[in-house]
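testing teh design pipeline on a random one, pls ignore if ur not involved
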C-alpha cells in the first residue's frame, strides 16, 4: 500500500473588491491500494545469486530419513511431484516448479537365492558301451537254435529312445548265428542274446571249430560300440562209427587152437567214442552153396577180434568159406545212429 500527500489550491482569476486574487487550499491524502495481479515466482539461488527457475534437481541417498534436506536445494522434500507456491491475495495466484530428485542406490541388501526349476531336455550324446570288450562262449554242435551266450551294453542317456540299444552281428557269423535284443528287467542296460540260427546245425567234424563274432551295439542315433565274441564249438557224439571195409582172412583147417585169427577195424569221427563190435550173422559156403552154417566156427569179440571157436574143428571139406556180417557200435553216442553200416 502506498500513501500519497497532495495539496489542492483554488484561486480566483479576477481580483476581488480589495484588488486581491482570492485563493484557498486544502490537503488531500491519497491511499493507493495494491491489487493481487502478480503470481509468485521461483528463484534458484546458488552462491548468493538467484535466477528465475521453474525446475529444480538434486540427489539424495535412498533410505534418507523423512525431512532431510536435499543437497543443493533449499526445498524441503515433501512432495516429489511438484512444488506449488500460492500467494494469499483475494484471488490466489499460483506458480509451479518441477522438482526432480535422483535417489542414489546404496549397497544395503544381502544377495538372496531364488528357487528355480529347470526342465532339461535329454539329448542323445552318449554312445552304447559294452560292459566287456571280449566274450568267450561255448556251444554244442548239431543243436539248431542252440543258446550261445549273452552280451551286455549300457547307454548313459537318461531317456528313451536315446538310451535304447539294439545289437547285431556285423562280422564272423558266416550265417550261423543270430542275436536278439531285450532290455534288462533289473537295471537300465540291454542284453544281446546270441544263439545258433534255428535253421543251422553246426558240425564240429565238418565245419569250423570256433567263430570270432563282431557284435555291434547301436542306439537310435547310430552311436555305436563293438565287442568281440569268441564262440567255441563243442563236439557232440553225433557221428556213427565206420568200419574200415570188407576184408578176407585165410584160416587153415583141422585145428582147434588158433585163437584170434584177425581183427575188425573201425573209426568214429567223434572225439569221445567208445566202440564195441558185434557179429550180426554168419553164413557158410558148403558144397558150393552159401547158406546157414551147421557149426559156428568163428566168434567176434567186442574188441573186434575174430576168434576161432574151440568147440568145433574147421573142416575145409565141409565148407570152404565162412562169411561174417558184423557192425560196430559207439556206446557213447548222444545223437543219431550209434552203429555202423554192416561189414563183412
Ligand atoms: Ca545314446
Ligand atoms: Ca558232427
Ligand atoms: Ca561229433
Ligand atoms: Ca560217434
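output:
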Amino acid at each position: 500500500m502506498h500513501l500519497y500527500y497532495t495539496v489542492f489550491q483554488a484561486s480566483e482569476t479576477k481580483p476581488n473588491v480589495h484588488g486581491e486574487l482570492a485563493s484557498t487550499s486544502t490537503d488531500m491524502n491519497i491511499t493507493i491500494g495494491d491489487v493481487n495481479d502478480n503470481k509468485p515466482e521461483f528463484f534458484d539461488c546458488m552462491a548468493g545469486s538467484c535466477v528465475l527457475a521453474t525446475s529444480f534437481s538434486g540427489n539424495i541417498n535412498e533410505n534418507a530419513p523423512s525431512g532431510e534436506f536435499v543437497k543443493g536445494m533449499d526445498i524441503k522434500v515433501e512432495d516429489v511431484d511438484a512444488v506449488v507456491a500460492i500467494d494469499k491475495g483475494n484471488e490466489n495466484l499460483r506458480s509451479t516448479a518441477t522438482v526432480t530428485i535422483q535417489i542414489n542406490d546404496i549397497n544395503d541388501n544381502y544377495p538372496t537365492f531364488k528357487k528355480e526349476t529347470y526342465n532339461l531336455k535329454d539329448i542323445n550324446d552318449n554312445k552304447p558301451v559294452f560292459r566287456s570288450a571280449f566274450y568267450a562262449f561255448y556251444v554244442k554242435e548239431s543243436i539248431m537254435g542252440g543258446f550261445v551266450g549273452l552280451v551286455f551294453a549300457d547307454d548313459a542317456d537318461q531317456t528313451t529312445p536315446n538310451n535304447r540299444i539294439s545289437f547285431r552281428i556285423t562280422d564272423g557269423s558266416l550265417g550261423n548265428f543270430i542275436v536278439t535284443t531285450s532290455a534288462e528287467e533289473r537295471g537300465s542296460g540291454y542284453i544281446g542274446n546270441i544263439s545258433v540260427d534255428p535253421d543251422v546245425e553246426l558240425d564240429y567234424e565238418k565245419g569250423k571249430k570256433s567263430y570270432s563274432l563282431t557284435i555291434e551295439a547301436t542306439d537310435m542315433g547310430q552311436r555305436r560300440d563293438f565287442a568281440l565274441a569268441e564262440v567255441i564249438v563243442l563236439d557232440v557224439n553225433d557221428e556213427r562209427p565206420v568200419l574200415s571195409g570188407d576184408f578176407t582172412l585165410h584160416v587153415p583147417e583141422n585145428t582147434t587152437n588158433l585163437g584170434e585169427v584177425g581183427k575188425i577195424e573201425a573209426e568214429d569221427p567223434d572225439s569221445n567214442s567208445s566202440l564195441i563190435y558185434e557179429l550180426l550173422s554168419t553164413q557158410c559156403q558148403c558144397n558150393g552153396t552159401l547158406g546157414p552154417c551147421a557149426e559156428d566156427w568163428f566168434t567176434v569179440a567186442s574188441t573186434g577180434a575174430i576168434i576161432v571157436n574151440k568147440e568145433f574143428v574147421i573142416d575145409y571139406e565141409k565148407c570152404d568159406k565162412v562169411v561174417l556180417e558184423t557192425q560196430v557200435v559207439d556206446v557213447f553216442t548222444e545223437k543219431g545212429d550209434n552203429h555202423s553200416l554192416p561189414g563183412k
